[in-house]
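Minutes, project huddle
Topic: does the predicted pose make sense with aspartic acid bound?
PN asked that the exact inputs be recorded in the minutes so nobody has to dig through chat later. Recorded below.
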Amino acid sequence: MAIVVQKYGGTSVGSPSRIEKVAEQIIATKNQGHSVVVVVSAMAGDTNRLVDLASQVDQNPSPRELDMLLAAGEQVSISLLSMALIKRGYSAISLLAHQAGIHTNNRFNKARIKDIDTRRMLIELQQGHVVVVAGFQGMDSEGNVTTLGRGGSDTTAVAIASALHAKECQIFTDVDGVYTTDPRIEASAKKLDHVSFEEMLEMASCGAKVLQPRSVEFAGQNKMPLRVLSSFTDGDSDGTQICYEPEVDRQHPVTAIACQDDEILFSVKSMLPLSELRTRLFAELAEADVEIDMISHQASAQSKDLNFTIARKDLVAAEDICKEFVSVKLISAYHCLKQLSKVSVIGNGMRSHCGVAAGVFATLQQQAIDVFLVSTAEIKLSVLMKQCDARLAISSLTKKFNLND
Ligand code: ADP
Ligand code: ASP
Ligand code: MG
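Predicted holo structure (tokens), as shared on screen:
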């Protein structure tokens, strides 16, 4: 019997009535003759509530204890969903990550799955059970509870699907597929029937939270058939299929636009030669697990400035390091600009079409949107701007590159 892995996100299981609906959907798949493993997120809002609880006790909580707390959300939803299945006469068993054999490294709050021991899941499937696994969590080699970073249930689902050689991994969420841009930000965005793996990886890495970036990486490594679908509509859409085949030449240079809010721009005035400061500062930031995104530098007779962006969650760690560098006179001053957004245009067609940068800058200039930093890669161009300008930028770029319906 072919195995299908289905993942239901927080909104999909956000209330008892939603859980009942999801149970019906799982039963429909089971009745098609599939063995079903279901990965579930915490009920909508629960993980945020737990984060908030932790911050009321300690603004900078112990990472191990934070993971112990956050993992509790998924324990609630797996058991409720299993109850709903059992009530309907279908045998089901809920498993926490350690029971499902999900082994991770020990980087609390952003752990990576190292391997999955599928024995228990296979035994349960052979006995005809629907296996309901807690997403987002794992266990390190010392038996500690770990979590995979926000949105991590997507990665749990793809990793399990790969380990079980499933026929397909279906990510059920609150939109009916992957759109040209977030349909909640830009109502005219168009649903994509297919999106290439490379484009999906760039979209996810640039803030399209419909899939966690690591889940896309995992899917690519294993060429796992991956589909994004809605749990709110009854099978009337095929959703979006992630494709691995090389694409025939694209008509349009841009396929999608993604946006990452809450970016912070650091501007640092160096007292060392810039090359030396770059090496030392970025090494310290890496040591503290701070991820650097965009970078630019200016070296002239008057100034030696280094600019880089980080996510807001890393602000305290990055500031501590900059303060330390000021105190030992490696930098004379630093400044952070908050509430910025990175808007990225993405498309495989950018390999063969030129003029995307010209189109982006002309569009932003027409709207009088200031650009703070720019970065480019083979199939993407990212622009840093004020958060309050991002919506206008997205809607103007959607029109410019014909990404609307
Ligand atoms: P879940 O709780 O099911 O994991 P998420 O909130 O993590 O759901 O992801 C789904 C959300 O992703 C959508 O509601 C949508 O607002 C957002 N999103 C961002 N970019 C896109 C995109 N390009 N296509 C579809 N959804 C997107
Ligand atoms: N519950 C976790 C979160 O809210 C994991 C997930 O939803 O994928 O981030
Ligand atoms: Mg999600």
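Observations noted during the meeting:
- Residues 177 and 239 are 4 Å apart (CA to CA).
- The radius of gyration is 23 Å.
No decisions taken; revisit at the next huddle.
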